[in-house]
Queue: 2 jobs
Job 1
Amino acid sequence: MNLLTAVLSRSRLLPFVPIIVALALSGCGGPEKRQPSGVRITPGTTRAPRPQPPPSYPAPRVVTPQQAPTFVQPRPQPLPQVPQPVPTVVPKPQPLPVPIQPAARPQWIPLQSWAAQMGFSAPTRVSQTSYQLRSAAGSFQLEVGKRAATWNGYKFHLGFAPASTNGVPFIHSLDADKTLAPLLQVNRPVARGRGVIVLDPGHGGIDVGTKSVLSNSFEKTYALDWAMRLKPLLEARGWKVVLTRTTDRTVELTERVLIAEQQQADLFISLHLNAAAAGAAGLETYCLTPAGMASTLTRNYADPTNIVLPGNSQDFQSLHLAMRVHRSLLQNIGMADRGVQRARFMAVLKTQQRPAILIEGGYLSDRNEAKLLASPDYRQKLALAVAKALE
Ligand SMILES: [Zn+2]
């Protein structure tokens, strides 16, 4: 109890007592931290119990009607814009990931409507869950519930497994735009701007990559050899070719992207060889996952679907390039087809301002493929297959 309260309680100011008392106790300012005003009162002060009774008084509406909303509003607004994934976007000059705006609303399209719109015949049911679409350009085979699909027999992955409602198959609109549409263009040559390709032999120096199951040979050595063989083949096809390394040196991932930036390269192609504990074998070709979709490979990295990365500006052309190269490798070498895949974590893909792909040209952990890769003739075939895709 104090004198101020006693005086006020007799006057007409009775309804405002808690406010006046609170203001007197809290000093001034500090609007950001209203709640702690009770906390800040030190133990032993007779004023301590005062701030707690306010609920029984309607005073706040009368005294500070305009101020309250201005404190409250600013806080909720920033929240949606700060989703915790501010991922590892490496180079500085490029825009930060931006959360997707309303465009990302899921939208499903009847497969039949899309087929008609794109000049395909009506989908033919080829099994309990699979559908085939045919046109002059080729044929898709899609399966309800599965992301893996084929285009002219070559495997790729949808962002969303097709769904079925009452026996009617649907595809996701993002797949229509970001997956199926680029594949339809696969017979068109890759666009040349300045005619510059950056080839990126994976690993190097202290980063040896994977090791052959058969010998002490490493991925970094084979990748460099592959790139050195590919360079003259591309030059013979009119490209200017720059390698991110021409020796066994350590090259940071950011430097690899920077080289492409400095060269204002039209295309970026990273060359790697794979490894797995289990008996995997075959070819995988990667490009960046479009925003709104899940990746097919995450390697335990976060895979935030709600961000747009710099490389996403090239989604269409990157998948087009990926399928052209993938198809050429399968046609010319006949490896097992593990499909065109999508990953979001690969630094050499996600920060690019140009179509960019990463080829995993076989498994050094597979005895058969390790043996093939040890052969210079086979590596020459690998190089030639990539070059043919860029004619
Ligand atoms: Zn690698």
Note: The first strand starts at residue 98 and ends at 99.
Job 2
Amino acid sequence: MYVKKLVAQYTEMLDESPLDSIAQWKEKHPGSKVIGCYPVYTPVEIIHAAGMLPVGIIGAGNRLEIAHADSRFQSFVCSIVKSTLELGLIGKLSSVDGMVFHSICDPARNLGSVFKRNFPGMLIEYIHFPQNMASPHTVNYLTAEYERIKGSYEDLANRKITDEDLRRSIGLYNEQRVLLRELYRFRQEQPHNLSTVECYVLTRIGTLLPAEEHIAILKEAMKGLRERNEKPKDRIKVILEGSFCEQPPLELIDGLEAAGCYILDDDFLQGWRFFTTDIPVEGNPLRNLANAYLNLSVYAGVKHDTREHKSQHLLDKVKETGASAVLILAAKFCEPALFDYALYRRALEKEGIPHLYLEFEEKMWIFDKARTEVETFVESMLFD
Ligand code: SF4
């Protein structure tokens, strides 16, 4: 009951006014700053260690009319770039003191510059993640990049960030990520007791609320989930891949499962669940964060890691979870997702693992077509 109520409450918040929670936090913490984090991954610990609130600015869902941002971008870029800019242009980011973008793709790179030009009162940061993960110098490079960001946030927050501050923040976000991994493991083992929409909402609120609050919610939610005892339905088990940056509408996620799938794993909100294990707390904290990006993070469409084959990771995931198929759910015009699809498709076909490719946009309203495609796919597997 607790989880149902909680999910209903936060689904409404996510649908109607996700950014209101930022203004509420600022009211309770006068003088404190908020930093908006564009997907995919941000080292939020550095922001938190400065006494600021890191929040995910992850587009605007399907309730926002794009009236101004279209004129700043070509028609063939993904929705999240335009909706994020629109949020700024219509004043919805007025409680946000800074934004951070990353070198994930050309549209995100350009969005950082467009924000800098259009919002001179905001601190716009841009993290250049390494393009060569195999070089022995990469960890030094990324540590220096994090030092630069730290200096910038010290100026904004008007205080020094000590190593102890950073260690406390790393410990806190480790705890949050442990609980998120637990949530995901629970859904993988008992998908009939936790729907993907519920799993998504419980994760997404962690991108808006302070980590301390989210941890308390997750602990309570896990207690409630362990008491559930739903009957499994006759559905196929799938892995969902491709939605690591722009997020599909909740109605679409719901429709995928209702069409006959149990989603055992996905890459929604990937940057907030970015590590496979805890980041070490002892030692040089910025170096630990940099090293974690290089060596402890999940495979990702926006990480250029020549040391490994992404498609092999996907195949391993299918095998380890016991899934029988893969849904590729990619944002329209998302180049990194499209590049990955070429690799995934070849690997899945070679291994004889069925897959279905679907495209989405944030502003989608009609889900019948996607649902019918998934239903047909499921039937073809069930009655093969
Ligand atoms: S959805 Fe894809 S193309 Fe668009 S900003 Fe994100 S990674 Fe870049």
Note: The radius of gyration is 20 Å.
